[in-house]
Design a protein that fits this description.
The strands form three sheets. This protein has a six-stranded antiparallel sheet, with no helix packed on it. The longest helix has 6 residues. The protein is mainly β. The protein contains two helices and 14 strands; from the N terminus they run ββββαββββββββββα. The chain is globular and about 50 Å long. The protein has a domain of about 130 residues: Jelly Rolls (Sandwich), CATH 2.60.120.
C-alpha cells in the first residue's frame, strides 16, 4: 500500500536579479517512479510569486538549436515560468528594465528533466535557450497572451553580452528571424524597473 503524500513543498530561491526566481519542487519517489507539483497557486503565493497565468506553450527542439532572445513590449509583456519536460536546456535571460541594478546583465541556468528546476522570469527580460541534449521539450506558462505586434528581440550572439550558450559554433542552429534582431544597445525597450 502506497504512503499518502500529505505535504507538497517548493523552494523559491531569489537571484541577484530582482524578481528572477529559481523554483525547485520537492520530488516524491517510490518504486513506481516519481511525483511532484510543478505549479500550485497557493504554494507560489506563499513564496511571494503571484501571477495569473493565462497561456501555456510547449516546444520541441534538437541539439544545438538556440531560440531567442525574445520578449514582448509593454503593455503586452509576459512573465514566464519555464521548465524542461525532457532533455536539458541552458536557459538565458537578459535584464532590460531601465534602472534595475542588473540592467543589461545576463543570467543563465541549466533546466532539465533530471533536476526539475523551473525559472520564473518577470516582465522586462529578454529570454532564450539553447538545447544541450539530443532533444529537449520545453514548457512554459505566460501571464499575458501572445501579441504579434509587440514582439521584439535581442541578437542572440551580441558580442557585448558575451553569452556562452554551451554549444560549439559549428553546431549552432538559429532561425533566420533570430539572426535579424538588433544588438542590445539598439533594441526596442519600454521597460523600467519598479523596485
Amino acid at each position: 500500500m502506497a504512503t499518502a503524500i500529505k505535504n507538497y513543498k517548493m523552494q523559491f530561491q531569489e537571484t541577484e536579479f530582482p524578481g528572477l526566481i529559481i523554483i525547485q519542487p520537492d520530488i516524491f519517489k517510490d518504486n513506481r517512479g516519481y511525483f511532484f507539483e510543478s505549479y500550485n497557486q497557493k504554494n507560489f503565493s506563499k513564496g511571494n510569486v503571484n501571477y495569473n497565468f493565462l497561456q501555456d506553450n510547449q516546444a520541441r527542439s534538437t541539439y544545438g538549436i538556440i531560440r531567442g532572445l525574445h520578449y514582448q513590449l509593454e503593455p503586452h509583456a509576459q512573465t514566464k515560468l519555464i521548465r524542461a519536460l525532457s532533455g536539458t536546456i541552458l536557459d538565458v535571460v537578459v535584464d532590460l528594465r531601465k534602472g534595475s541594478p542588473t540592467f543589461h546583465k545576463v543570467f543563465s541556468i541549466e533546466l532539465s528533466d533530471q533536476n526539475k528546476t523551473q525559472l520564473l522570469i518577470p516582465r522586462g527580460f529578454a529570454h532564450g535557450y539553447s538545447v544541450l541534449s539530443e532533444v529537449a521539450e520545453v514548457f512554459y506558462k505566460c501571464d499575458a497572451y501572445y501579441h504579434k505586434d509587440s514582439e521584439a528581440g535581442v541578437l542572440w550572439n551580441d558580442a557585448t553580452l558575451q553569452i556562452d550558450w554551451k554549444v560549439p559554433a559549428d553546431k549552432v542552429v538559429v532561425s533566420e528571424k533570430d539572426t535579424l534582431h538588433p544588438v542590445i544597445d539598439n533594441c526596442k525597450n519600454n521597460f523600467s524597473f519598479e523596485g
